[in-house]
Amino acid sequence: MRTMSMPSSIRITDVGPRDGLQNEPTPVSSEVKIAFINQLQRSGVAEVEVTGFVHPEWVPQLADADDVFSRIDRVPGVVRSALVPNEAGWDRAQAMDVDKIAVFTAASEQFTHKNINCTIEESLDRFAPVVRAASIAGKAVRGYVSCAVACPYAGPVDPAAVVDVVVRLLDLGVDEIDLGDTIGVATPHDIERLLVACAPHVSPAEVTLHLHDTGHAALACALHAMQLGVRSFDTSCGGLGGCPYAPGASGNLATEDLVRCCEMLGVDTGVAMPAVREASAWIEGALGRPPVSRTGATWTQLSSEQG
Amino acid sequence: MRTMSMPSSIRITDVGPRDGLQNEPTPVSSEVKIAFINQLQRSGVAEVEVTGFVHPEWVPQLADADDVFSRIDRVPGVVRSALVPNEAGWDRAQAMDVDKIAVFTAASEQFTHKNINCTIEESLDRFAPVVRAASIAGKAVRGYVSCAVACPYAGPVDPAAVVDVVVRLLDLGVDEIDLGDTIGVATPHDIERLLVACAPHVSPAEVTLHLHDTGHAALACALHAMQLGVRSFDTSCGGLGGCPYAPGASGNLATEDLVRCCEMLGVDTGVAMPAVREASAWIEGALGRPPVSRTGATWTQLSSEQG
Question: Which of A217, A266, B33, B74 is surrounded by the most beta carbons within 10 Å?
Fold first, then answer.
């Protein structure tokens, strides 16, 4: 029988404070966010996407970005990154001395049109000066490609369309390509097809995968991607970003789910499960609802029953 | 890059009416069960585990087993099976003309002790005459091995302990080995280790996998098992058997989750997704709570948004 070949370690970016909380209907105070981000920074993840320097009218949940970023701890070894949509955002990010920024576009014209009111080309033009400025300032830049598998408006997305955007991002000078299954419908086969298509331009080992778990296959996709060479994943503590009562709004792959599996597979994530569980319980308490990540809740109970 | 090799088809047994409903805290009327089972029989699954002929004091949720079995439809081509713990259960099953029976034991002494109040050896002795009688009556027998990966009381289970039980079941004459991750904590690597250990006695192509989704990795396990040659899976419509408000009590791998992934991977299940969704909505309406299977709810919405 053919057996699994897993990497010895992977790198985890917890995007919960940004991608998770920006999609949460429940408002969260700056104090809660700060405590949450500090907990995540001490959980062992390599990077925390702290917030987004976006227009407060566009994403009210992140209106306190500057206040939050200025007050969080600096934990040695942890990259504190933030989403930056344009030059105004870059100015704010620079004032906060972020370690790394993320720019974003999508592989679907319908998605960029509906979400950022421009074409893919215009989105690239909009953040090209940001990428240049970050490069001069010596800051790393992540380039998100949303809808890398499917688009909520246009349906399935051709990997060739993703490759076009990846090539443009690399030409602009981004340091990291982050492929996002924004609506969480990918199967392992979709991920494989995508990685194969992108391989001539960026190898799986250089790609970050950003999975949502709508179709319940995010963990299967991540494990398959690991076998194909991917070593970097975005997750969110507690599976934040989805609301269990709002069908269609599913969160990121839960940090707990990926870490638990990696622990059992002997793949080092650097993450301490108890610290993630604590952070997860904290933010879920603040949101006032049960966790999306089932591992978070049930594993604790099973562990204690076995004691 | 190494690519996925998937089977052309798999066989699905929906165990929701038995394994799902026997663990539901909400009582369900016989009428609701009958309608649910009939819907499942018409969903395209190969087999429905209809109920268990167990003592009503032991599992009150299945106290109406005879009434339910006598009133459900007979749908050509669909196997109607039932759990049978002992000779009294066999007499009831035979009176109902079930197509196939399932006997069960576990790979953990602690589990059999707490759940059926006997040793593994005693459990085998108890159903040995049932297997013989079924064989004489020309009925197929499935042999469940619970706790094939871990036990809620004893923790991780050695694959060698599973092999011992598998060999005993085969010696008794069961027709099908069903390996159960009863508490839903398996990773794909656990499944691989288990299948490799069992292979000298029963090949992956002859094994049925019974996965629960506590650790959120059931789908990853199923997809990996398919690559290793497994062609038969137990699932439950809607991910029944778990309660979202009761941590630790997680249901089976949801039929919808497996079928959706198989559809996208080109693996034939024979199952019509709309029929499963309808059955899922029906039983969830009866239980009065949102679905455990996220695919069930969210995929419908995404599909309609793309319309």
Answer: A217
Residue-range domain boundaries for chain A: 11-306
Interface of B with A in 117-156 (CB under 8 A): 152-155
What is the distance in angstroms between the Cα of A257 and the nearest Cα belonging to chain B? 7
Q: What is the predicted pLDDT for the residue at A23?
A: 84
Write out the CATH class of domain A11-306.
Answer: alpha beta
Nearest CA in chain A to B261: A187
Nearest to B306 among A155, A188, A294 (CB): A155
Identify residue B125 by its one-letter amino acid code: D
State the residue for tokens 């499935």.
B142
Any B CB within 8 A of A1 CB: yes
| Cα maximum dimension of chain B | 57
Distance CA B57, CA B61 (A): 9
Residue in chain B closest to A292 (alpha carbons) equals B244
CA distance linking residue A281 with residue A302, whole number of Å: 17
Query: How far does the CA of residue A110 sit from the closest CA of chain B (Å)?
Result: 11
Question: Do B247 and A298 make contact, defined as CB atoms within 8 angstroms?
Answer: yes
Report yes or no: A190 at the B interface, CB cutoff 8 Å.
yes
Between CA B253 and CA B235 the distance in angstroms is: 5
| Tens digit of pLDDT at every position of chain A (307 positions) | 556 788 999 999 999 999 999 888 778 999 999 999 999 999 999 999 999 999 998 889 999 999 999 999 999 999 999 999 999 999 999 999 999 999 999 999 999 999 889 999 999 999 999 999 999 999 999 999 999 999 989 999 999 999 999 999 999 999 999 999 998 999 999 999 999 999 999 999 999 999 999 888 999 999 999 999 999 999 999 999 865 444 455 799 999 999 999 998 899 999 999 999 999 999 989 988 765 554 544 444 444 433 3
b/e per residue A67-93 (b: at least 16 CB within 10 A):
ebbeebeeeeebbbbbbbbbeebbebb
C-beta contacts of A156-159 below 8 A and 24+ residues apart:
A157/A107, A157/A108, A159/A193, A159/A194, A159/A196, A159/A197, A159/A198
Angstroms from B292 CA to nearest CA on chain A: 9
Residue A7 contacts B where some CB pair is shorter than 8 Å: no
ipTM computed for the complex: 0.79
A211 touching B, CB under 8 A? Answer: no
Strand partners, B268: B9
In this prediction, residue B2 has a pLDDT band, given cuts at 50, 70 and 90, of low
Q: What element of type H or E holds B50? A: strand B47-52
The two structure tokens encoding residue B24: 């539901």
User: Which residues of B belong to the active site?
Assistant: 243
A3 to B199: CB separation less than 8 angstroms, yes or no? no
Of all residues in chain B, the percent with pLDDT exceeding 70 is 91
- Is B299 touching A (CB cutoff 8 A)? yes
In this prediction the pTM is 0.87
Q: Which long-range contacts (CB under 8 A, 24 or more apart) does B123-129 make?
A: B124/B168, B124/B169, B124/B172, B126/B85, B126/B86, B127/B84, B127/B85, B127/B86, B127/B103, B127/B172, B128/B172, B129/B87, B129/B90
